[in-house]
Amino acid sequence: MAYLGMDSSNIQPTEEFPEDAPLRAQVEKLLHAGLRSEVEPRAYDPEMQQSVLARLQHVLAEEVAKRVEIAGFTLHPYAAEGIEEACETCMYFLSHRQFCALPELQLPVKPDWSCRLWRI
Amino acid sequence: MANMLWLQGGACSGNTMSFLNAEEPSACDLVTDFGINVLWQPSLGMDMGENVQKLLRDCVSGAIPLDIFVFEGTVVNAPNGTGTWNRFAGRPMKDWVKELTAAAQFVVALGDCATWGGIPATAPNPSDSKGLQFLKKQHGGFLGANFKSKAGLPVINIPGCPAHPDWVTQVLVAVATGRAGELELDDLQRPKTFFKSFTQTGCTRNMHFAYKVSATEFGQRKGCLFYDLGCRGPMTHSPCNRILWNRQSSKTRAGMPCLGCTEPEFPFFDLAPGSVFKTQTMMGVPKELPEGVDKSAYIKLTAAAKSASPAWAEKDIFVI
Predict the structure, then answer these.
(1) Chain A CB within 8 Å of residue B278 CB
(2) Domain ends where: B174, B192, B210?
(3) Residue-wise over B275-286: b if at least 16 C-beta within 10 A, else e?
């Protein structure tokens, strides 16, 4: 996916974490199958961020669909005011592992996905 | 020989504790090597009661020449402008401060409280506290914007919560040895030698800043603390990563976000819930960006940096 002229699609997920690929595929399948995630309202203000994070903190690690739903994941970047809120530019995104390191999520993702906790 | 008098207003004594830990030079070196005569200091002064009152009166009258007046803590004005919530040596401290600053060759405000008001002056400021020549960012403070000491300098501000011990002793040496003229002050009256660079200057996490790899939890050895944990290193003027604390480390090296304590707005956002140790954002973009960087450039830089980041930047790595 190209973003502002940058292309991170050439970075392949590291094989150091073999558990990532099946989990990433599971998330992708869930969203393709029509899982309705809470894309909006976006967590732009501290109260909303805290509210979303607090809900995530009560979800068990194995409840993947629930985490994806609460975080508001999409398989494409959400855009607002000319800014594409793609995982690949998010502070929590590890480019080489292709992983969301937000403690409350800890999910393998793809660069052109998006969620409402995006921050740059 | 330079006579130094040091008083405390609305303070926690943190700057005195810091001063007593100075190493280059030490508090003892000031006396033995640099000719500073400590007339009185809250933790070092031997005189009590009437004797302190007489000493202060003699400093005000000029019977004892007062070369350096160091003030730590806020000037407390409550209640109703009387200052009687902070009495010292028989009268409100603010009255002593007014007279002693007029008598001194040089006036040094030490620590955030004395420079800008610090935590005591945070809204709603119940003690009606002010810094000597600033109230937060507003020039003026207790002495007024036009104040100059007898030597012709405004108050020399050494902020910090507390100030690093060596900033204090090195400034005192400069003043005591006749090199005060070399103390170039910035707009906030801080010596540029110490306060021109940023806290980020010398931070061992700078590579993570450059590659936009964020620390997401305290205690992580990798990751920059600016992106998520509220570190103010890129916007704060201090040499905390050049002149290390205890000669060993700094907040950011140890994984603690910089709180911006050398800036007049400290504590930021009036300590509103959720504002400490959390980067404040607007639509996902930090409200305050590194000094001199605009939002559009920041977004472009982030995209480029993340795309270019090497794999090692995402791994656990020693940063101290």
Answers:
(1) yes
(2) B192
(3) eeebbebebbbb
